[in-house]
Write a structure and sequence with these properties.
The protein is built from six helices and two strands; from the N terminus they run H-H-H-H-H-E-E-H. By secondary structure, it is mainly alpha-helical. The chain has a two-stranded antiparallel sheet with strand order 1-2. It is globular, with a radius of gyration of 15 Å. The chain starts with a helix and ends in a 5-residue tail after the last helix.
Length: 117
């Protein structure tokens, strides 16, 4: 869950001035899928690298996190349809889902939203 300060910065980032409208689709995506800091980081990672296909240990290395902390979140995001997993021989590769709306939201999140921790 986000802290109040993070929520305020998020609100300010996705459009809170009188000349902008809030990006409801992006806000809903974040609220639904970025339910922990690990998921937040995974969504940013795949949003910044929408064509990347990585094994879980590669994602962990690139993000500077332990594999054991990422594996469940990767699998949950696959179950939710945000990520997809492809198997080649005995190896699993994770990537951003092909669904246009999901890809668009993840890429916009990575591009437009910055929350400092």
């Amino acid at each position: 869950m986000m802290t109040l300060a993070q929520s305020i910065r998020l609100h300010n980032t996705i459009g809170s001035t009188s000349s902008q409208e809030i990006d409801v689709e992006l806000f809903a995506f974040i609220e639904r899928y970025a339910t922990s800091l690990i998921r937040w980081d995974l969504l940013l990672y795949f949003g910044q690298n929408p064509n990347r296909r990585d094994q879980a240990f590669e994602v962990a290395q690139r993000m500077g996190r332990k594999l054991i902390t990422l594996q469940k979140e990767l699998d949950d995001l696959v179950y939710l349809g945000v990520l997809r997993v492809d198997q080649k021989a005995d190896t699993l590769f994770y990537s951003l889902a092909h669904d246009v709306n999901t890809r668009h939201a993840a890429i916009r999140m990575a591009r437009d939203v910055s929350i400092t921790r």
